[in-house]
Structures are given as structure tokens and as C-alpha cells.
Design goal:
Blueprint lengths: L4 H9 L4 H16 L5 H5 L20 H10 L3 E2 L11 E9 L4 E10 L6 E6 L6 H14 L4 E4 L3 H13 L1 H11 L2 E3 L1 H6 L1 E2 L7 H6 L1
Parallel strand pairs: 2-5, 5-6
Antiparallel strand pairs: 1-7, 2-3, 3-4
Helix pairs in contact: 5-7, 6-7
């Protein structure tokens, strides 16, 4: 598949995700100058390195050559095993909203407690007037589990929470400041440590693999 096929992939298969294109587009010219025009060619550029004893930071450089190799061989490569904090006693969250209207209508997730059934929660807003209420209920719930890590996938939840603080001011500013210290974006592990054979790290594509 041509490298620019990543861009046309959406039109052909409707599976292009913004994450891939935003982070890869700046590298296309560099690879073209080297005569690299396909995912297969790009995969052959990967050269295994000696593993450092120091685990790279989450913000380390993404290895597109290894990503291409994963796609070519349909294998998942794990450079370092992720070490998130206590997954058995944690909160997992997911927001749904209408971006064009800057409106969050659902805050959902589940609370995982070791040796206990998961506790599912959902707060719904039928209108923008009720949005402040569901954020208040959300922060109230989190205060009950003040020591638990809060896991999410991607930046949507963080941006939504920052927007809520901007809209509702002091009502949530302190609550968000405390929450931010224990939020963990699971997507960051796939940006440095894990390379699945998918054209993006979008949840839908990963879920279909």
C-alpha cells in the first residue's frame, strides 16, 4: 500500500483515523526523498536496537518503521511492557458529546474493585441546561474513591473536563485539579511501547483486530 494510501484509505475502506494522519503527514516527504513509497518498503527500514535498561518516556519518538512492520507481518510488537498503576482498583471513564455544540450529554464508566463486582455508572444530560448537573454528580462520585487511578483513552475526556471548568468556573476548578493528578491516558502506552498491526490506534480499529 502506498504511504499516501494512508490518506486515501478512508475513502477506500472508511477506516482512516485522524491520529495516524496528523502524526505521520510531516514524515511523508522525508520518506519519499529516500525512495520509500509503500508500507512494505517502510517496514524494511526497521532495525532492532539494543534494549536500553531505561524505559523510554511516554513522549518518546514514534517508530513508524516498526508500525509498518507490524502491519506487514500482522503482529503486535511490544517494546516494553506497560506498567500502569493498580488496574484492579481503578475507575474507567468515557464521555460522549456533541463537539459542534460543546455539549457533553453522557459521562459513563465503571469502578473496578478487587474481588468485587464492577460498579457501572452513567450520568445523562437531556439538554445543555443539565450538563453542569452531570459533571457535579461525576465529581461527587470520584470524591468517594479519592485514591483510585482514573483511566481514559485519548484526550477527549481531558478536554471536556477543561471546558467544563472554563464554563462553570470555581464550581469544578478545585475538583478537576485533584482529578488531573490521577488521570491516566491509556493511549499514551500505544504511542511508545506497543505497536499493533492497525493503521491507527483508534479504539474501533483495535477492537476489530
Amino acid at each position: 500500500m502506498p504511504i499516501l494510501g494512508i490518506l486515501s484509505y478512508k475513502a477506500k475502506r472508511k477506516r482512516l483515523y485522524q491520529f495516524t494522519w496528523e502524526h505521520f503527514s510531516c514524515n511523508i516527504a522525508k520518506y519519499y526523498k529516500k525512495g520509500i513509497f509503500s508500507i512494505t518498503q517502510l517496514s524494511h527500514l526497521f532495525r532492532p536496537r539494543r534494549r536500553s535498561r531505561r524505559k523510554p518516556t511516554i513522549a518518546g519518538n514514534y517508530m513508524w518503521e516498526l508500525k509498518a512492520l507490524a502491519i506487514r507481518e500482522q503482529k503486535t510488537y511490544v517494546m516494553y511492557m506497560p506498567e500502569p498503576n493498580d488496574l484492579e482498583n481503578a475507575i474507567y471513564i468515557d464521555f460522549e458529546g456533541v463537539p459542534d455544540e460543546n455539549f457533553i450529554y453522557l459521562i459513563g464508566g465503571f469502578i473496578k474493585k478487587e474481588n468485587e463486582p464492577d460498579e457501572v455508572f452513567s450520568f445523562w444530560a437531556d439538554s445543555k441546561d443539565e450538563e453542569k448537573k452531570i459533571f457535579r454528580e461525576f465529581f461527587k462520585l470520584l470524591s468517594t474513591y479519592s485514591l483510585s487511578q482514573v483511566y481514559h483513552y485519548g484526550s477527549y475526556e481531558t478536554k471536556a473536563l477543561k471546558a467544563a471548568v472554563t464554563k462553570y468556573g470555581s464550581h469544578f476548578k478545585l475538583d478537576f485539579a485533584k482529578l488531573q493528578k490521577r488521570m491516566v491516558n491509556l493511549l499514551t502506552y500505544l504511542r511508545t511501547y506497543i505497536y499493533p498491526p492497525t493503521y491507527s490506534n483508534g479504539l474501533k480499529e483495535l477492537g476489530n483486530f
